Each structure stands twice: as C-alpha cells, then as structure tokens.
Amino acid sequence: MYKLFVGGLPFSTTDEELAQAFSQHGTVASAVVVKDRDTGRSKGFGFVEFENDDEGKAAEKALNGSDMGGRSITVNEARPREDRPRRDFGGNGGGRSW
Known about the structure:
Elements: E1 2-7, H1 15-23, E2 28-35, E3 42-50, H2 53-63, E4 67-68, E5 71-72, E6 74-77
C-alpha cells in the first residue's frame, strides 16, 4: 500500500471525486477527504491509498502541483502521524494553581 497526502483541495471535494481524480494513475484502495468532526465540513486535505507502490508514486509525480477545481493541489507521500504531547486543559484557567 502506498498512501498519499493531498493538500489544497477545494472544500467541495467529495471522497468519490478524489478517488476518481487519482484512479487515472492506478488502482485506488481508498480515498478520504478529512472533515471537521464538529461541522462536517472539509478541512481542504485528504488521503489516497494505492494498492501498488509504483502506481502511487506515479500519481504523486503526475498530480503534485496540478489543478483540481481551480486550486493547485499538493501531493506527497503521507508520513506517519507524529506523537503529539497530550493537551491537558485541566480546567484551572491556564495552569496556575493558587
């Protein structure tokens, strides 16, 4: 599996449209536009996964910087999500204890 990060998507892009745009370059295993969990609106980026590494690399090369819905998209290999420090809001107004 070869997973691509796709940034700069038009906010109206659907999962199906994303898959269709990338399917010209190979067999798309999955395509997901990331949405805000509270509003359900697109965040303007997504991920496309190819079954074959060579097809994924070809799509990355062909589509990076290309136009999609009037916007220039960024396409590169997805990196594993970095561990982020836990955000503890604790409820004590900025971390000061009196």
